[in-house]
Amino acid sequence: MPEKSLILIVDDEIISRSTIEILLASEGYELIFVDNGETALRKAIELIPDLMLLDIMMPGMNGFEVCQQLRANPRTTKLPVVMITALDDRESRLRGLEVGADDFMSKPFDRAELRARIRTITRLNRYRRLVETEEQLVYLANYDTLTGLPNRNLLMERLQQSLGRARRTHQNVAVLVVDVDSFRIINDSFGHDCADNLLCEVAHRLTQTVSEIEATVARVNGDEFVILFDTDNLLVKDVSGIAQRLLNNISQPLILNKHEIIVTASVGISVYPSDGEEAAALLKNANVAVSRAKATGKNTYQFFTTKMNQAAFKRLILENQLRRVLERKELCLFYQPQIALSTGQLVGMEALLRWQHPESGLLSPSQFVSVAEEMNLIIPIGEWVLRTACYQTQAWQAAGLPPVCISINVSSRQFKPVYWLQTIKNVLQESQLAPNYLELELTESVLMEEHNDNNNSIVAVLTELRAMGVRIAIDDFGTGYSSLSYLKRLPVNTLKIDRSFIQDINSNRDDAAIITAIIALAHSLHLSVVAEGVENKEQLTFLQSRQCEIVQGYLLSKPLSQEEMTKLLQRIDKQPLCLLPI
Ligand code: C2E
Ligand code: MG
Ligand code: MG
Questions:
Q1: How far is the CA of 475 from the centre of ligand 3 (A)?
Q2: 56 and which of 63, 278, 367, 513 could share a cystine (Cβ 3.0–4.6 Å)?
Q3: CA distance 570 to 164
């Protein structure tokens, strides 16, 4: 900033101009005089003075118009403007305020007042400019001017902070280096400006992808970005999920120079503390990993640690196989008998999903249902379960075997009320199964979900299902948060006591008390109770003594394949069978 304050004086009267010149002569300002509005605007933009003294009455553009235009231009919008008015000209002052004047000075000038005011205004303005320049310097030191993202400097600062926190709290920090593939070719063939636009677009896509987690996205040089986030309990699948989403979003088509092109990137990942304790080591190792990702054929991610790559790879394979599980007909249902405690007779069965995996054999739901949920595949899979269970139950009945109710599990991710209502209606109609042979097992978390739109609410849909005759059970009861008042409002038939309470029934007095209470509660609400996971006789005796109606568990029968269940039904058909151990 120059030493002297620069004042631009705009006045068409030569006498006025020379008066000001004389009054300010000894104050050490640099003074520039112009005699019309147009020139004033031009000079103001060119010189950005510290102050403009502006006469109102001028031929051509008057002072109000000049002030208005100054305010409309971002370069001069903050320029201090003092308007020169005649004494007591109240109207001009009001008008001046409207167009954005900062102060007024009346003619004839009071020498002391003029000097004092100008001194204050120019000093304040210089100070403001100084602060702005400093802010700008801080900004330039920490941010990348092209993309507006933090630069290497700020990234290192944030990384140090994250590492400090992680050391105290024993958390993990993930560092992802994202490098645009073949950037040099893009730069050469599209030119510098286009390549800059591309980098801005990549920056935007990266920021959007991680907008839901608290992450720092930085541009560290050229086509290299770094993403940094803390994770309290690092799961390889979470980090690899983010990396995969980054790759997917970057590789969406974009328009460059009127051409649609597809750009890809490679991602290298290092994790504190396993891949390095210090910032520099983590960045270096993430860079090693990104080079490996490039060498593996680009558009992919690599962890620095081989073991994590293997875990991510295994999951990727599982996802791919799961995607084709329906078309390859690899799913099947097992059926676990539910027995009435009073008679020992089969009164129902729970359909349990299995995956006949080509290499690993029969997989249980815990090995794939959560992945299917994350991939949204649980919707078609759930529909397959419903359809298969209904058709099979109807087939058994059509073969003249004793009719039993079938329960199917519906996970919270798949329970979209209105969609389910329609699907169940369709499947019941197609399969010809009477609705009272179908029971849905929902967990407490599904039922507690609030739906604002009353027509679509879970309660409304369940009520309609109940009216059709479909039964509703609450699965794993006792592990969630259902309130009693909520239970009363819900159209539920059955509570299934979670296995964890049954397990220690005879050694844990709390569990015994909880079961006793759940059974009493269910009875007072006219609900039936199923105890899950009954494995020994002591448990059975306890449940009998508490008037639990139905039991299910390995003691009575493991889940059976379709063929085994058919055989059991055939035996029951020949003669009533008591399935309780003697
Ligand atoms: P769940 O609904 O609580 O099912 C009962 C689980 O307990 C079954 O495990 C069953 O095999 C097991 N079990 C039964 N009796 C005993 C016993 O005496 N001792 C022990 N230790 N376990 C017993 P499974 O088949 O592995 O299913 C696990 C969970 O996966 C189910 O828990 C259910 O939440 C879910 N699931 C099963 N089939 C489906 C399905 O078709 N769709 C969805 N979304 N989830 C399903
Ligand atoms: Mg269940
Ligand atoms: Mg259960």
A1: 5
A2: 63
A3: 67
| Average pLDDT of the chain to the nearest whole number | 90
Dihedral of CA atoms 56, 59, 60, 66 in degrees, nearest 10, equals -20
List domains and CATH numbers for the chain: 6-142 (3.40.50.2300), 152-304 (3.30.70.270), 319-572 (3.20.20.450)
Closest listed ligand to the CA of 559: 1
Residue with the nearest Cα to atom 15 of ligand 1? 553
Beta pairing partners, 107: 86
Residues contacting 330, CB < 8 A, separation 6+: 355, 356, 357, 358
Q: How far is the CA of 346 from the centre of ligand 2 (A)?
A: 17
Residue 407 in contact with ligand 1 by CB distance below 6 A: no
Closest-CA residue to 282 (of 272, 296, 294, 292) = 272
Return the structure tokens found at 105.
Answer: 């000075």
Mutate to test the pocket of ligand 1, among 336, 362, 371, 409 (most ligand atoms within 8 A of CB): 409
Q: Which of 282, 271, 176 is nearest to 231 (CA)?
A: 271
Beta strands in 201-320 (DSSP E): 215-221, 224-231, 254-256, 259-261, 265-272, 301-303
Distance (Å) of CA 546 to CA 115, 125, 256, 476, 522: 98, 85, 73, 19, 12
Token readout for 340 is: 């009435």
pTM, two decimals, is: 0.62
Q: What percent of the chain has pLDDT over 70?
A: 96
> pLDDT under 50 in the chain at which residues?
451-455
pLDDT at residue 27 in the model: 85
E strand residue ranges, 238-307: 254-256, 259-261, 265-272, 301-303
pLDDT digit string, tens, across residues 295-304: 888 899 999 9
Tell whether ligand 1 has an atom less than 6 A from the beta carbon of residue 342.
no
Report which bound ligand comes closest to the CA of 473: 2
Q: Which helix (H) or strand (E) holds 60?
A: none
- At 559 the three-state DSSP class reads coil
* Structure-token match 């055939």, residue found: 570
